[in-house]
Structures are given as structure tokens and as C-alpha cells.
Amino acid sequence: MSSKKTLFDKVWDSHVVEHIENGPDVLFIDRHMVHEVTSPVAFLGIKNRGIEVLHPEKTFATADHNTPTINQHLPVEDPLSANQLKALEENSATYGISYWGLGHEKNGIVHVVGPEYGITQPGATIVCGDSHTSTHGAFGAIAFGIGTSEVEMVLATQCIMQAKPKSMRINVEGSLSKGVTPKDVALYIISQLTTSGATGYFVEYAGQVFRDMSMEGRMTVCNLSIEMGARGGMIAPDEKTFEYVKGREFSPKGAALDKAMAYWETLYTDEGAQFDKEITFDASNIEPMITYGTNPGMGIGISNDIPLADAVEGGVATYQKSLQYMNFSEGESMMGKPIDFVFLGSCTNGRIEDFRAFTSIIKGRKKADNVTAWLVPGSHQVETAIKEEGLLDILNEAGFELREPGCSACLAMNDDKIPAGKYAVSTSNRNFEGRQGPGARTLLASPLVAAAAAVTGKVTDPRELMETV
Predict the structure, then answer these.
(1) Are 436 and 409 in contact (CB under 8 A)?
(2) By CB neighbour count within 10 A (0-12 exposed, 13-18 middle, 19+ buried), where does 209 fall?
(3) Strand, helix or coil at 163?
(4) Who has the most CB within 10 Å: 64, 96, 180, 294?
(5) Each residue's pLDDT tens digit, 181-215
(6) Looking at the predicted structure, is the pLDDT value of residue 1 above 60?
(7) Are the C-beta atoms of 442 and 435 separated by less than 8 Å?
(8) What is the number of alpha carbons within 13 Å of residue 281 lying toward its C-beta?
(9) CA 442 – CA 202 distance, rounded (Å)
(10) Within 180-226, where are the H helices?
């Protein structure tokens, strides 16, 4: 067997506690993040078994899915949401777990606050009862979502039993064109591979495009790994990664940082290491993207027409059912289609870089009268930066309001639901039927495309509104 290892192999193999013959690996977990939706039953299991959380210092809890994004100082009205939030608070107190609930300065979306506070680190194994845990792979970590029974397993043992996935490398070479963001890169890859194209694989993203990306951009790409069926995605850490992590609250300091850096600097794929599958894309083929259907793979460059059914994999009947739900037709252009809502936020695009991009289009313009816009920062850190950088003033002048941190309209588990039949240009991650509310119609896009729609009231190519550079 070759001694050359991929980044994924290096991190995975170093965390294997025991390999079960013809079975899964027992994998040690460095960081466990929990929220209010998937944890109550897991904590109940711990209680019923009469055991403790093995490593409460490695577990971090925040409230995000069910939280309102206005009037967070008031009691939560929805009884189910209120009960789940109360359960997380009580369970965290019982087992000595850090809890960042509503009103806490560190509160925010779990996959936004983890990196902000240095909980997310290179070479770590990170799990959470949430599919988009893959976000943390941007730091060279192995991060993936787990189910409720697995949440209980990690609470009890700080380990999880997992079969080792196959490895895939996706290279994107060249430079991105004007108006093309990391979100567009991810949506383009998903459109090419389909939503099942990476099933059974853990993906490493490589190539010039990813080396050039900011950490925020890398998080967006890794976040969307799940939408092509992958178990997770990761990017080799580099100087950008190290500088981002250093100095944060839970990051190592002093001699501990020196020791960590010695390990972090080994986290790259060895020359000659073999992947089970490798794909390369040309960055020049990517333009601002938008989805037209009911899964993230149904995406096109914004200047293209909706494909004909016979050109799409997955069956004509299924394809036509999707278009019927969206009230679109084969061969139509997406450009100029009227929209009703714009959502900027989520663990995919709720970071400060996303608000900067959105505001760059908004500046000097006004919100379209027919558009309701929900602008939701991913955390209080993001909210503070929006204000300190003067972005809020620009947004307010254009007729927009800023909401409070939370998952918001990503998944309709709170008050922010898109009404039936309405179209929402959304910077979130899923456009399934009813994902943003029963009967809602979701168009996934980047913050730039969302901003262009917000000021024109229709699907608009953001390059038409960008300043000439």
C-alpha cells in the first residue's frame, strides 16, 4: 500500500480509536456542536441510562433553528420552539455544557459561531446533528452531520462509529470572472454532478479557485458539499486558515499554538496520493448561477434558459413535476422573472463577506416595492460588523432592515416562512418543495444575485449592476 496519503486519510486515520473488522471505525470526536432541534431526545437517552456527558468541555450548544429573528428579547411565542429552546438550556446546565442561547453575545447559527470563536480548527473531527456541519471542512477538518442516536453516542462516549467514505478530489482551475462568487462555484459543481454525484464520498476541493478564496468563501463551498450527496467536504489549510484561527477565544495560545501549528502544517494531500475519483472544472465556464427547480442540482448560469426535459437526468416525469411546482416551463429564460422575497442569510451565506457583497449592489439604489427582504446575520459578531462597517446605514438608506441572528427562512422552522406560491431568491442551501414554507418557491443564488433581485424586483444578472472595474 502506498505511503502517500490524502488530507482526508491523514485526519481520519489519526482519529481512529478502533477498527472493527468488516465493520465501521470507532472515530474520536474533537468537537461536538449541538442545537435545540436534534439534541432533546439524545439528552433524554443520556438521562434514562443514568450516565453523564463524557467530555462536556468538548461540546458547545447554541440556539438557532427555532429562534425568531425579531424581538428576541420577548418570550418565544411558538410552544414547540419554546419547549425545544428551554430543553437545550436545561440540558446544557445539567451536564455542564457551554450554552449560547437567545440574548447571549455568542449566540448565532451553529456553523457560523463555531469558526468565529475558534472552536473549529484544522485537522479536527467535528460533528453536529445538522447536515451542513460540512461547513467546518473549510479549515481542513473532517466535519459531518449526524442523527439523533449518534448525538447521544457522542455525548456518552466522545466517539462515533462510522464506515470510512471513499475519497474524491474536485479541482477548479483558473480565475473566477466578474460577479462569480463561491456560492456560484458550488452551485455550478452541483449542477454538473447532480445531487447524488458525490454520494459515498468525502470531497477535497483543490485548485487555484479555492486557494484564492477567503475563508468565508471556502465555508460556503464546503457547506454545500451535502447538496451533491457527499458525506462532507474539506480544503487543505494554508496561511489564510492559520491567520483566521489564531487569536480566537477557543484557539490554542502560546506553546499550545506552536504544537498545533506543527500538526496543522502537515495537513495537505501528499504528492502522488490516490483518490477514488477525481474531477476537474474550468473556472472560466462558471457564471452567476440560479436554480429553477426543486433540488440544488437544478441550476443554470443566469443567462441560460431552463433545460429541456430530454437533456436532464432523472426522468421526464419527475423533471416536469418540479417545473410544475415552480410554475416554470422548459426553454424559458430565468432573466426577468418576477420575485416576491429575498433572503440573505443562513449557514451558507450569513457571514460578513456576504453582507458586504450584497451591499455593494444595493449602494445608491432602492429596494423594489414588490419585494420583501429578510436580511439575517449569522451571528452577533456579523451583526456588529455590519453596523461598524457602515453597511447598515447603506441598507437602511435603500429601504432594507436588518433582523437578528438565526437560521431564519432557510428551513421554515421559525416565524420566517415564505407564503405559498411566492418566489424567494434565497442565499440558503436547499430549494426543496416546502423547504422555506408550504408551497414556497425557492431560487437559490449568491448574495450578488439576491441583491440584484432585491432592487429590480425580478431575476437580474448582477453583472449589469456592478461598477466597471
Answers:
(1) yes
(2) buried
(3) coil
(4) 64
(5) 999 999 999 999 999 999 999 999 999 999 999 99
(6) no
(7) yes
(8) 23
(9) 27
(10) 182-193, 208-212, 215-223
Q: What pLDDT is attached to residue 468?
A: 39
Whether residue 448 has pLDDT greater than 70: yes
- CA atoms of 212 and 218, how far apart (whole Å): 9
Q: Is the separation of the CB atoms in 151 and 26 below 8 Å? A: no
Q: Beta strands of 116-207 (E only): which ranges?
A: 125-128, 142-145, 159-162, 166-173, 201-206
Q: Which residues contact 372 (CB under 8 A, 6 or more apart)?
A: 340, 341, 342
Cell of 22: 468488516
Q: Which three cell numbers stand for residue 303?
A: 443567462
Cell of 440: 414556497
pTM over 0.90: yes
d(CA 137, CA 454): 31
CB atoms within 10 A of CB 70: 15
Q: Is the backbone of residue 389 left (phi > 0), alpha (psi -120 to 50) or beta? A: alpha
Whether the pLDDT of residue 469 is over 60: the answer is no
In this structure, the strands spanning 25-28 and 159-162 are antiparallel
The CATH class, in words, for 7-163 is alpha beta
Look up residue 467 and give its three cell numbers: 461598477
Amino acid at 385: A
Q: CA-to-CA distance for 188 and 232, rounded, in angstroms?
A: 17
* pLDDT tens digits, one per residue of 88-136: 999 999 999 999 999 999 999 999 999 999 999 999 999 999 999 999 9
Residues 6+ apart with CB under 8 A from 96: 53, 56
3-state class (DSSP) for residue 33? strand
Task: Indicate the SS3 state at residue 295.
Answer: coil
For 246-264, write each residue's pLDDT tens digit: 999 999 999 999 999 999 9
Q: Which superfamily is assigned to 308-464 in CATH? A: Aconitase, domain 3 (3.30.499.10)
Compute the distance between CA of residue 302 and CA of residue 299 in angstroms, rounded to an integer: 9
Q: How far apart are CA 166 and CA 150, in angstroms?
A: 21
Task: Return residue ranges of the chain for CATH 3.30.499.10.
Answer: 7-163, 308-464
Cβ 356 vs Cβ 388: under 8 Å = no
Q: Could you give the count of Cα atoms lying within 13 Å of 42 in the half-sphere of its Cβ?
A: 26
Backbone dihedral region for residue 241 (phi beyond 0: left; psi -120 to 50: alpha; all else: beta)? alpha
Query: In angstroms, rounded to a whole number, what is the distance separating the alpha carbons of residues 258 and 291?
Result: 45
Task: Quickly list DSSP for 419-453.
Answer: PTT-EEEE-SS---TTTTSTT-EEEEB-HHHHHHH
Distance CA 274, CA 204 (A): 12
